[in-house]
Predict the structure.
Amino acid sequence: MRPIRIGIIGYGKIAEDQHVPSIRNNGRFELAATVSRQGKGAPGIRSFASHHEMLDQMEDLEAVAICTPPSVRYDIARDCIEAGLHILLEKPPGVTLAEVEHLACLAAGREISLFTTWHAQHNPAVTAAAERLAGQSIASMEIVWHEDVRKWHPGQQWIWEPGGFGVFDPGINALSIAARIFPGELFVREAELIFPENKQAPIAARLRFASSSSGGELSADFNWNHQGKEEWNFHIRLSDGTELKLIEGGSRLFVGDELQASGGHGEYPSIYAEFVDLIDERRSHVDIRPLRLVADAYLSGRRSTAPPFEDG
Ligand code: NAP
């Protein structure tokens, strides 16, 4: 079978760290092109300065992975859908819900696959947690997502601009896990967003949720100014007293003291395996729930101000 010729648009940290190796290790794909305004790219692969140039010159391209900052995704994705390409969107899939919903409508009108990826959902421990929690009554859920922005986003300025998401860039990973594992709908009940005086995006956020399936305390605490080892943890208590801990970004699940699930083939290899299935079956997978929780936190949240933040 001929491999699916794929291009990567937006050649930065995640493209280089995860997308290139995952494409190269998946025999169903062939990396055919990259797009970078600065001329960066993978050795031996054609590189273009814009997605327009790539679409004009690469007639046999079948799919793209869009790994730019979210603020420019919609225009690029729309052009690629109109060119008939299958689309993989890095998280978050856009800046607004309307953008992503419109892309889903455009894709539905054509024989192409649109895949809004949430990499943290691709851990076997997350799947195991969803299975263990299905139909259960939740007494409480505490999400702690603390990391150091200087470590994970060195030199990136777009993350602090409007549409850059600030602390919700990592926080949305936690919300993507919550959306996947929580047995019932989650609503934002209260939010506090903390903006450094000199930034357009929050550096910390505290959320409280409500759910039709739990009257307990459901909370999330996101902090991007955390020193030391990251804390990416869920602590869930069931009404029967059982304790679940989903730790290290969703990679290990403990029920009580027993390790129930861990490991796997890696988040991004799993994403590309699912992309193959979607393309083969001409299906889309569009999940906007994590983005909706962020939007609702902005809509309902109180804003407070922190001292200026310098990351240089
Ligand atoms: P990044 O290192 O800043 O890379 C993004 C790249 O997009 C830049 O190198 C830039 O390359 C290109 N770009 C920027 N503006 C563009 C525009 N207007 N048109 C076309 N290309 C543009 O960012 P990243 O860390 O890879 O993050 C990208 C996305 O991946 C984000 O949504 C993030 O949430 C997600 N992600 C990141 C990580 C991580 O660990 N960093 C992990 C998982 C997911 P040129 O300037 O050369 O065009």
Observations:
- The pocket of NAP is lined by residues 10-15, 36-38, 40, 67-70, 72, 90-91, 119, 152, 156, 169 (CB under 6 Å).
